[in-house]
Amino acid sequence: MANTEAENPGDRGGPQLPKSPTGIVGFDEITGGGLPAGRPSLVCGPPGSGKSLFALQFLVNGVTLYGEPGVFLTFEQNRADVVADVSSLNFDLDRLEADGRLLVDALSLEHQAIDTGEFNLEALMVRLAWAVEKFGAKRVAIDNVEALFAAFSRPALVRSELQRLFRLLKDQGLTTVITGERGDGMLTRHGIEEYLSDCVVVLDDRVVQDVATRRLRVLKYRGSNHGRNEYPFLIGAQGLEVLPITSLGLNKQVSAERVSTGVPGLDDMLGGEGVFRGSGILVSGSSGTGKTTIGASFADAACKRGEVVLFFSFEESEAEIHRNMSSIGLDLTGWVDRGLLHFHCERPTTRGLEDHLAMMQQLIQEKAPTLVVIDPVSSLARGGSAFDVSAMLMRQVYYLKAASITAVMTVLTDESELAQSIINISSLVDTSLELVVLTALGERNRGLYVLKSRGTAHSNQIREFLLSDTGIEVVPVVIGAEGLLTGSARIAAESAERISAESMSLESEELARALEQRRETVDAHVATLRDDFVAEERLTQRLIAASEQRREALRLDRLAQGRRRTVRLPEDEP
Amino acid sequence: MTTPSEPQERERAPTLERLHLTLFVSGASATSARAVVRLRDLCDRHWPSDYDLEIVDIYQQPEVVFARGVLAVPTLIKELPLPVRVLIGDFTDESRLLTALGLPGARHD
User: Fold this and answer.
1) Fewest Cβ atoms nearer than 10 Å: which of A172, A233, A404, A506?
2) Do B89 and A105 touch (CB under 8 A)?
3) Which residue in the set B24, B31, B85 is minimally distant from A123, CB to CB?
């Protein structure tokens, strides 16, 4: 039912037992489908490791996702506590009970009964059988079964009765989760794992340097393959979520839409359009290189587009960020007032890593942002081992990507060990920006380069990153004879260039002027020549006219002479 | 039957109230049968015809088992006089039963 095809550790090998999906994110993947159907499974771990939640989630999901009614028998808490504890996880036990699909049976074992002689726990079995029949239950959870050892001071009797109970559950084909508390050198305090050999799940809540990390391991699964690693898990808004590192699905939707970083020069470095929506951006750098500022400008740009932004700050308070950003011309208070920008500022030490991630996921679900800034993600990771940190962050990045939320995470690289662990997740981020300190000629300047940016053309240059009261600017650095020039050296180089350019323009102006003068001279000359020509032309035309007149006069003369001769002729020839 | 009174009053004078017991048994099992016999015998000796004993067969009335939070059989609940006492077992240990039922050791014969 919940089988997934790729990288499913439980799917290797031969015929598989029928399985009952738990609906717990990740768990069904590492077990190849869930708990063994119709059999009891043991879930054990120290107090507070999430055993009860595992059991309840198994039942609630059974009802809501798989249509299998369930009975929850608890010796640990009273009913009101059980309901209240999980109401924050959107488990509405009251409603499920009212619908007749789930029974929360809280049995108080506070008062130890007076033992007067031989007895057995037949009533417990009758009670359970009655409830199962009444609700048509297919799933049962008993939390924490070892409380019976405390309530009845006859361990041998309780042991044999539990054995009988487990057999009864199995005979009735009930998929059951039995929880037990971890004991010294044993999985459970009273060794009940001996009777629950089908499937054993161990939960752990280890504290490393004051930070708690939860882990889950399937110790045993008779007749089935299963993931054998220790998997980190967290308790988030959806309850228990196991992170099977090897089976992170990569089937998320990707967006080709580009969003601005808020820094024009930086957008230019990223192919002129910024980063992909829903991608992960890592901004790393040592202290004071402007990581928060980059994060804030991402936020500012998103708010300008009318989008909702969630800004997690683990080192500065909201007021500090407002003050610091307004000093470089970034006014974030307006966005807060308009309800677009939400800050969550908290000391990293207030909770464990896993808790932080859970809190963040909860806020993300509540505010539904399109951009999340985590500043800095490295302080969040303080205290965890490199493995824990990268596994948890991987989970977080994956979560954000799946939700198509653009994530900007800053990393303080001064803490080299942590930085290393975060670099492990850098394979999961799409764009990695590195802020560097460029020291030369007695100055410290900020530089920025794009370490990588998947799927986008990006500059290979280190550029200078300027913070002034007018805003952030990313300017190309000048490569001089001495190498990269930044700060005043860049300004000096730039002004030297400007001066030579100026002198060059002066020279050309002079040349132009000379040319102009020459042109005027030539023009004047041409005008004189033209005048001369016009005069000459006129004279010539006059001469031509005179010559024509003379020719005409000559012709007339000849005519007159001819006439005279004609008149005289008849007298000569009679 | 005594008239209902304030709990504080009841606790101060528990012996003034009539004994009310509920015994949960599992059908006709040997342990349960033994428990019934022993309890009846003891009550008849100490409170002749001055007690109420209700016997619940868990197989016949599972809903009562459910409502009362009973896990073991035999289970005896001393409902009245207050305080409520819960006993389990077949009453092999009679002195414990007597103490729980509020009988001073001096009256034990």
Assistant:
1) A506
2) no
3) B24
